[in-house]
Design goal:
The structure holds two protein chains of two kinds.
Chain A (H helix, E strand, L loop, with lengths): L4 E4 L5 H14 L10 H9 L6 E6 L12 E12 L3 E11 L8 H15 L4 E7 L3 H8 L4 E2 H5 L1 E7 H9 L2
Parallel strand pairs in A: 4-5
Antiparallel strand pairs in A: 1-2, 2-3, 3-4
Chain B lengths: L2 E4 L5 H14 L10 H9 L6 E6 L12 E12 L3 E11 L8 H15 L4 E7 L3 H8 L4 E2 H5 L1 E7 H9 L1
The chains are: A alpha+beta, B alpha+beta.
Chain lengths: 171, 168
């Protein structure tokens, strides 16, 4: 049984956060798409106006299974706004290293986030899941999650940088 | 003739009115439980949880009921762990009698400028799959359907279940 504790991320955690973001992206076969740097993460998360928040899971030095790493899981979240009900907690990334799964670390992270959401008077937690990701879908459904895309027909759209520049240059 | 500007605290009652009008269009008006007080605290306090752009017409052009604020867009900043900051468009609405004059296009152009100026990598938003008019409006401006291309589905854990989890 791995001993672990959860805490708010600090500036010193930025290299570990980037490492875990890349590991999760690798699992989704998208590792080369991570162009974010430690500098970006530091400015964006620990400046005057944080654009994201992180919770990290840490194990004591003696429990390290993988050479040199004690930060072995994380969740990245931020607050969004629903014009009908107000504040929401949006779960952006959520990952525990393979060697540390099965010990309830993921559940504990989600519980901590639920606490945070309730304390901040958020009406609910939102997040995206790829429809191919059955394991995650089951994990969330066991905790009462509902598929709003299925129930309400919502589809996520994007206008990328090129499209934005094109529009903003139009007269 | 119209002008676009950043919303101010005084606009809160117009913003709520337009939110309710848009919800009515989606046949969900009774679902709007947000109050003017909350909109004020959440948008104009120390830490704004949303930003608004409003479209205003001169008094001579006001709506049938006497309104001069006749359109709005609500947005905030989100974060993509692969590329960083994004601008997220949450609500976007122009009153029916003021459509067809390019107000919507101008609002979207303003938001694009804001996104570029604040170093966002893109703009995200959700659209209901049955809303073909809006889908076409966005596709004409280069929007791609990430739900279709990448299979993303939006999930929710509501308050009841959050409380359940946090009390375990």
């Amino acid at each position: 049984m791995a001993k672990f504790h959860l805490r708010k991320a600090e500036p010193k955690d930025v290299p570990d956060i980037l490492r875990l973001i890349k590991e999760l992206a690798k699992y989704e076969e998208m590792e080369d798409q991570v162009i974010l740097t430690e500098k970006d993460l530091l400015e964006d998360g620990f400046g005057d106006h944080p654009f994201y928040h992180c919770v990290v899971a840490e194990v004591p030095a003696e429990h390290q299974k993988v050479e040199g790493y004690s930060v072995i899981g994380f969740a990245m979240y931020y607050f969004t706004y629903d014009p009908w009900i107000g504040k929401l907690l949006y779960l952006e990334d959520f990952y525990v290293m393979k060697e540390y799964r099965g010990f309830g670390i993921g559940s504990e992270i989600l519980k901590t986030l639920s606490d945070t959401a309730v304390k901040n008077r958020c009406s609910s937690m939102h997040f995206l899941v790829a429809q191919s990701n059955k394991a995650s879908i089951d994990f969330y459904k066991r905790r009462g999650a509902s598929d709003l895309s299925l129930e309400e027909g919502w589809r996520l759209f994007r206008i990328d940088k090129e499209g934005l520049l094109k529009m903003s240059a139009e007269e | 003739m119209f002008l676009l500007r950043k919303a101010e605290p005084k606009d809160v009652s117009d913003i709520l009115r337009l939110i309710k009008e848009l919800a009515k269009f989606e046949e969900m008006e009774e679902q709007v439980v947000l109050t003017e007080k909350e909109l004020l605290e959440d948008g104009f306090g120390d830490h704004p949880f949303y930003h608004c752009v409003v479209a205003e017409v001169p008094k001579e052009s006001q709506s049938i009921e006497g309104y001069t604020v006749i359109g709005f867009a609500m947005y905030y900043f989100t974060y993509d762990p692969w590329i960083g900051k994004l601008l997220y468009l949450e609500d976007f609405y122009v009153m029916k009698e003021f459509r067809g004059y390019g107000i919507g296009s101008e609002i979207l152009r303003t938001l694009s400028e804001t996104a570029v100026k604040t170093r966002c990598s893109g703009m995200h938003f959700i659209v209901a799959e049955w809303n073909t008019t809006s889908i076409e409006f966005y596709k004409r401006r280069g929007a791609s359907d990430l739900s279709r291309e990448e299979g993303w589905r939006l999930y929710e854990i509501d308050k009841i279940n959050l409380l359940k989890m946090s009390s375990k």
